[in-house]
Amino acid sequence: MSKGLTPILFEHVPWMDEAACQGHDTSIFFPTRGADTAPAKAICATCTVRKECLGFALHNQIRSGIWGGMSERERRVERRRLRLSLGLPYNYPLRRVDIGGKTA
């Protein structure tokens, strides 16, 4: 892990074992501000669990890194889009069922 980064701690979920990012340097998925996100997104584009990854990031309100092929900014826009499409208030926390996943 790069110096100065705080690890994100969360419970392991089974789909992570199938993720295309397994074995890659994590710094690819946590680029510095203004750095190129294309390498991470290229890996995500080949991933069979991309939807689950994105749903996980949206549900858990993960604010950093590339998850499910989307940057922090892209996920913020996606959260707004989902809330609007569901008629939910701006600050309503998204649940897995809201984002097309299974309820926990």
In summary, what is this structure?
The chain is mainly α. The chain has helices spanning 38-45, 50-59, 72-86.
Number of helices: 3
Q: Strand count, sense and closure of the main sheet?
A: none
The proportion of residues in beta strands is: under 5%
Mean model confidence by pLDDT:
82
What share of residues is helical? 25-40%
Radius of gyration: 14 Å
> What gross morphology would you assign?
globular
* Count of DSSP strands: 0
Order of helices and strands: HHH
The rounded distance between the terminal residues' Cα atoms is 30 Å
Task: Report low-confidence residues grouped into runs of 5 or more.
Answer: 1-6
* Total domain units: 1
Question: What structural class should be given to the helix and strand makeup?
Answer: mainly alpha
Could you describe the 3D structure shown?
32% of the residues lie in helices and 0% in strands. It has 104 residues and is an all-alpha fold. It has helices at 38-45, 50-59, 72-86. Residues 1-6 have low confidence and may be disordered. It has one domain. It is globular and about 40 Å long. The protein starts with 37 loop residues before the first helix and ends in an 18-residue tail after the last helix. The protein is built from three helices and no strands.
Notable characteristics:
32% helix, 3 helices, disordered N terminus, mainly alpha, single chain, 104 residues
